[in-house]
Design a protein that fits this description.
The complex is a heterodimer of chains A (111) and B (113). Helices cover 0% and strands 59% of the residues of chain A. Chain A has no helices and eleven strands. Chain B has no helices and eleven strands. The chains are: A mainly beta (111), B mainly beta (113).
């Protein structure tokens, strides 16, 4: 059974204080690992897809990396508008295009 | 590109009535769409996979007769909550598969009174 565990559950940062969110996964035949951002009362917003170990992708203050067991979402010099819940999901080779989600990390960036 | 819309964004209905939620891919065709529900402070729970022109595939524990899914075209899937009860109150979100990725709609807040 595919499993995704995100840590920490919640993270409070001061503006400009860089940190990382973790996503550990167990999946049979990873097809892709996805990162989404979700604001309260809204649907998830696509951030990145990573397909193979060693791959990295960047977007503004965010950088996602992937190993064979986990993914990190690095946030550099965050701003209050980066406050949101960040969701990680995996797509397994045996599950078609279905995604299995982690519980998310709620990030709060204080000014 | 890759925009998914949902309608309505919120709905209030009385217990025992049915409510339909639409999910549309606006600028692409989606042979596969997904329906999720999300409770407060929790992650997304997949309810069913909707395939254009065929029957939906429901996840274990999801009542197919209660949550009717129709994927009549490559840009539209609908979820009908039949005989709604207060425990069906939740945030329902759809997504569409496009080019190896999945894009989500803005969600529909359902409140059953």
């Amino acid at each position: 059974e595919d499993q995704v565990t995100q840590s920490p559950e919640a993270l409070r940062l001061q503006e400009g204080e860089s940190s990382s969110l973790n996503c550990s996964y167990t999946v049979s035949g990873l097809r892709g690992l996805f990162w989404y951002r979700q604001d309260p009362g809204k649907g998830p917003e696509f951030l990145f897809t990573l397909y193979s170990a060693g791959e990295e992708k960047e977007k503004e203050r965010l950088k996602a990396t992937l190993t064979k067991k986990e993914s990190f979402l690095h946030i550099t010099a965050p701003k209050p508008e980066d406050s949101a819940t960040y969701l990680c999901a995996v797509q397994a080779g045996s599950s078609g295009s279905r995604l299995t989600f982690g519980e998310g990390t709620q990030l709060t960036v204080n000014p | 590109g890759a925009v998914v819309s949902q309608h309505p964004s919120w709905v209030i209905c009385k217990s025992g009535t049915s409510v339909k939620i639409e999910c549309r891919s606006l600028d692409f065709q989606a042979t596969t769409m997904f329906w999720y529900r999300q409770f407060p402070k929790q992650s997304l729970m997949l309810m069913a996979t909707s395939n254009e022109g065929s029957k939906a595939t429901y996840e274990q524990g999801v009542e197919k007769d209660k949550f009717l899914i129709n994927h009549a075209s490559l840009t539209l899937s609908t979820l009908t909550v039949t005989s709604a009860h207060p425990e069906d109150s939740s945030f329902y979100i759809c997504s569409a598969h496009y080019s190896y990725e999945q894009y989500f709609g803005p969600g529909t807040r359902l409140t059953v009174t």
